[in-house]
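Pasting as-is:
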Amino acid sequence: MICKNYVVAGEDVNDNMVMESTAYISYTLRLLYHFLFANGFSKEKLNALHLGLQEANHVFVCHKNLMFTEHFFVEMKHCYIDDKINIKSCFFNAKNECCAEVTKEVEWFDPIRREVIAAPKQILQHFNPTSRA
């Protein structure tokens, strides 16, 4: 679906130089923003539409640790956009071994009213052309 290469940075690791679970979530959200940007919804456009994203539930499964300075890539395997955004990202090391998986739920958020909202129709029409008219 979409992939991006990274290197495990100092702020991503614990005292044992192992990438922390919060970093995996952060990279998953970065990839979501990259995906939205590639589909014409930059952060600036989302702000103009008074749309934000609010993190909700997630499931993190680690198969193998990623270490400080290690090269890796994140692949978004699944992204379903509706009133909530459900994404699944897989993290692979340089040997192409799946090291971790993140399943994340993100909700649409109106920063002016400060509340979770249903997905705007123009978003739904762009990503799910057969849904709601």
